Amino acid sequence: RVDCAARAFGGRAVLRSATLRAHAGRVHALVGRNGAGKSTLLKVAAGLVAPDAGAVHFAGTAYLRPRPAELARRGLYY
């Protein structure tokens, strides 16, 4: 789960209070127009891009600065 994620690149806000909820064993789709922040949101969820605000929650733990290796050890991969 990603709660209230915000991310900007070079002063351009890509995400503003974005939330994502995914459940194990289910297929999810993330749709939107080009440049809407879909890939950025997934990268934030996987710890590849640090959010400027918000948190990633996985396996009962909240990560303010998620790191890919730490999340991978817990079972989350991108």
- SS element count, helices: 2
The overall average pLDDT, rounded, is 91
| CA-atom Rg in angstroms | 12 Å
Classification by helices and strands: alpha+beta
Succession of helices and strands: EEHEEH
How many strands, what sense, and barrel or not for the largest sheet?
4 strands, antiparallel
The strand count comes to 4
Fraction of helical residues: 10-25%
Give the uncertain stretches in residue-range form.
Answer: none
Cα-to-Cα separation, first versus last residue: 14 Å
Strand order of the largest sheet: 2-1-3-4
Which outline best applies?
Answer: globular
Query: What is the beta-strand fraction?
Result: 25-35%
Set out the fold topology.
Elements lengths: L1 E8 L2 E9 L17 H9 L6 E6 L2 E3 L4 H7 L4
Structure write-up:
- The longest helix has 9 residues, at 38-46.
- A hairpin with a 2-residue loop joins strand 1 and strand 2 (12-20).
- The chain is globular.
- The chain is an alpha+beta fold.
- It is built from 2 helices and 4 strands, in the order E-E-H-E-E-H.
- It has a 4-stranded antiparallel beta sheet, with helices on one face.
